[in-house]
Each structure stands twice: as C-alpha cells, then as structure tokens.
Amino acid sequence: MTTDVAVPALGESITEGTLAQWLKKPGEAVAADEPLASLETDKVTVDVPSPVAGVLSETLVNEGDTVAVGALIARIDENANAEAVAESPAKAVADASTNPAGAGENPQLRETEHAPEPAPGDEEDSALTLSPAVRRAVLEHHVDPSKIKGTGKDGRLTKDDVLAAAEAQKVGGPVHEPEARAPAAQPVAAPTPAAQPAAQVQGERREERVKMTRLRQTIARRLKEAQETAAMLTTFNDVDMSAVIDARAKYKDLFEKKHGIRLGFMGFFVKACALAAKDVPSVNASLEGDEIVYRDYLDVSVAVSAPKGLVVPVVRNADRMTFAEIEKTIADFGKRAKEGTLTVDEMTGGTFTISNGGVFGSLLSTPIINPPQSAVLGMHRIEERPVVKDGQILARPMMYLALSYDHRLIDGREAVTFLVRVKEAIEDPTRLLIDL
Asked: 2-182 has which CATH code?
C-alpha cells in the first residue's frame, strides 16, 4: 500500500514554501511522524513528517523547488522492505555509468553527472551515501568526497562535513581552478604553454552566487515596504544603566534560584515600554485604512538572531507578565530560533518591537518598523562614558536608545515622551513597581 505525502498547512496567509532539503532518500525506512524533508517558508523552516511508517519509495520534487500547500512531494510504501527498495537507486547508479542520458532523467541523480569522480571501486557506495544537499555542496565547493571523513549516521557525509572540508581547503589545501585541480605543491596548468607554480595564483579572485532563502527574501521585501509606506523618523536618547545593573547584581542569584532563569535586561525594557505605552498609546497602535486601532494590551515582538536571519517571535500580553515570565519566554524563543523550531503563530501579531543590537556590539542604529506596527525600540551596547551629575564628571554605564516611528500616526512630541518615560523607568526601576 502506497501513501502520498503532501505539504502540510503552514499557517495563516502562507500558501507555499521551498523544499530546502530531503532528510530521507528513496529506499530508506521511515517511522510515522519522522521528518522526511525540511520546508522553508517566508517566516520559519518546518519539517514535513511522514504520515505512516514504511519506506520512502519516491520523491516527486527536487531540493530548491517551490511547492504549494497540499502538493504531493513523496510516496511512502507501507509494505516495502527498506533493503529491497534500496536496490533501485543502486541499480540506477550502475545504469548511469553506461547511460548518462538515463541518469539525467532521474531527479535524484541529475547532479551526479559532473560530480568529482570517487575512488575506484567505491562508485556505488559514494553515490548512495551522498544526499542531494551534499552532492550540491560537493559540486559548488569543488571538493573530493572520497577524501572527507563523514560524521553522519553510518559514516555518511553531511553538508557540514563538506563545508568544513571546503573551508580547510581554502586555508591550507589545494588551489582549485574552474576545470582542473592540483595539489598545492604541484604546478598548475596555465593558459600559456609555460607552467607556473601554484603559489603565483594564490591571489585568485572568486565570486560565489547563492540563492536567497525565502526568509531573507521576505525580510528584504517587508523592510523595503516599510520604507516606502511609512513616514519613518527616529528619535534618540541615552539612559544610565547603573540602577538596573545594580539590581541585577543584587538579586540575580535569588532570582535564578527561585525561577530557574537568569535575570536579564530585556525584562526591564519590556516592562518599561508597557508602562510608557499607557501614557502614549499611539506607539502601540496601528493604521488600518483611515482608522487608528488602539489596544489595551501589549504584544512585544522581540528580535532574535537565527541561523538564516532575524526572526521576531511575539511575547503576548507582555504588560501583564512578571519579570520571570518575560525572561523565560524570551530565553525559550532564543533557544528555539537557533534550532529552527519556532512556529508561524509565534511570530505573528506583534504590536510593538524591541530589537537589541547591543548584543552584537552596536553603538547606535536606526531600526526599521515592522509593519503593520507603528514603532520599534532599538537597544544598544552599554559602555562607560563621562556624564555630568550634580556638577561632577562621572563615568557611567550608558546605553543609547533609538525609537523609530511612523510619523503618520505618532507625533514627534509623543515619540519623545515615550522614550523619556522608558528612560525614567530604567534609571529608577522603582517606577515599574508603583506604576509611575
């Protein structure tokens, strides 16, 4: 019995994605709910699970193809034996050696036609253990897979293995020409009859073209739309972080012991923004046509760095959360952003954004609004600077704050007032407790 595998629902407003990588190949056994492929959408990367246990008998799309929700991408044979089905790819590889045209018709073998030749006697093994993603990496980086030690299951090569080998090759390995490769110690064929030592081509200039991921394309499109649509302006202020630093130093051990999470800066800023939004509600509002939508809740989008770009999961009802709840939620988001397990729903529906460029060393920036939101607060690195206080010049841990806002909805006076309220709450955290 054969079961079709279709692209699952990906969330509201998402109708298609890109098949980033096959995690299984034809002939391999799969368990029910085991991931078959990695699918990249505009917002997250999700796994496509197997609906049943069996053997992956056929893949219907290639890596890099765009697939719509509900489209068939593979078939699972519930009754097949994994070893028996695996003979089919092996036979195809054998046929490909005598019939290159036939190999080109098999989507799983298209990229092997010009791949580096494996060591003698290992043709079948090399072909069977290279996944499509690994083959592509081998072709792009011009490495010999037979000389790379695999770290995957049963010693198979992974994409990371190939990338690591390519990086090592750049640092101290052989120099590769587009058509031929030779060890660094050997002369490299030159266009002229006279041969030149490899050392003389070490300065070779290279270019690499990599297709943008769907996430990066979406980020680019939305940021450009924000610039073209909103009347963006940024106002700045600086804040003395002494009080917050002292509070963290005094209570961090008790806080972690009680709540199991470290007390960070973000909890203070989320609470400060929630307090300031009560005085300046337009910062937490949005424009819909000719109407302004005001909210009595604050859903904070917290910018988090992920391997494929910046993502903004949402801390919902942040104005009603405790410091511990805020810190736990943000820590969980950061962990799952690196793992690529955030869901679409968790990154949808924020009303205000906080971006902390300070963790990367940024001193000052002008953050861009995330539509349909109307404002974004940018945090930056803390550094000691001379400050005049009570007639004395003192060294204080200072941070620049930047508030970018949509001037169509928020007046300059309101933006400055909001930022001053945040500054006051951070410099005197007691205000957060007594709602001032």
From this structure: 2.40.50.100
